[in-house]
Amino acid sequence: MIEPVKRINVTDSIVNQIKELVLQGELNQGDKLPPERELMTLFEVGRPSLREALKVLEAQGLIEKSQKGTVITGNHDKFFTDSLMFLLYFSSTDWQDIFESRRFIERELTYLTTTRATIEDFIEMEKTIVNMELAINKDNQEDYVSANLHFHEKIAKSSKNLVMYHLYQSINKLIEHAQVQAVTVPGIMDDSLQYHKDILTAMKQRNAELASDLMVNHITSVHGFLQKKQNY
Question: What region holds the HTH gntR-type domain (predicted)?
Fold first, then answer.
């Protein structure tokens, strides 16, 4: 429930309370916020503070103004994912932490995907592997990184677990940065390609333990290649 504002920073308190209502499921996509006058009474704040808070929420994509009034958008899950992503991306995150997180998150995603993916999902993964092979033949590192990331994202999405998928998305930019660094190391593209083929084969055989173990080995291998780079 909305409570009277007790913090000194009134705007932040309003923003945080509305975010909390979204997280708790008390406000959902399409729900209309009460009129400004009613919100002012509920929060026990003045119009300037309330309007400033609503501007912040609108800029963050959590609310939008329509003919119905001010409503909750369907972008709140992306907002919370992006918030974590930017927090990690612009902090002094240690690479060891990133690869430990990848091993944990992607192992579980691979396990779930092996048991839940459809034939169509596997076909999409096969296409990304073909694109990786084409990129290697052309010695096109940019295309290789793109296809590589697409393969991992497809696994994440095919897990059918929204929470795990967003956890993966939250470190996606950091993964991309690592891939761009790693792809310049001689031999890594061929090594990575073989791992992707083996992982997909295990998934298609519905061997979840093998597929997830191969994913961990693959991520560990990439980390090892990166450690060979000078000043890494």
Answer: 8-75
Domain that holds residue 190: 82-227
DSSP 8-state assignment for residue 100: H
Distance CA 157, CA 164 (A): 9
Give the C-alpha separation, 127 to 82, whole Å: 28
Co-location of 64 and 93 in the same domain: no
Among 25, 51, 74, where does a domain finish? 74
- Which of the four pLDDT bands, split at 50, 70 and 90, describes residue 87? low
Does the structure show a pLDDT above 70 at 92? no
Helix, strand or coil for residue 38? helix
Alpha helices (runs of H) in the chain, residue ranges in sequence order: 10-23, 36-43, 47-59, 76-89, 95-116, 119-138, 141-158, 162-170, 172-182, 188-204, 208-227
Angle at 94 between CA 88 and CA 99, to 5 degrees: 90
Query: Which pLDDT belongs to residue 108?
Result: 97
Q: Do 120 and 53 fall within a single domain?
A: no
Q: Is residue 3 part of a domain?
A: no
d(CA 206, CA 114): 5
Q: By mean pLDDT, which of 104-108, 214-218, 228-232 is the weakest? A: 228-232
Contact 149/64 with Cβ under 8 angstroms?
A: no
Q: Which of 30, 50, 74 is the C-terminal boundary of a domain? A: 74
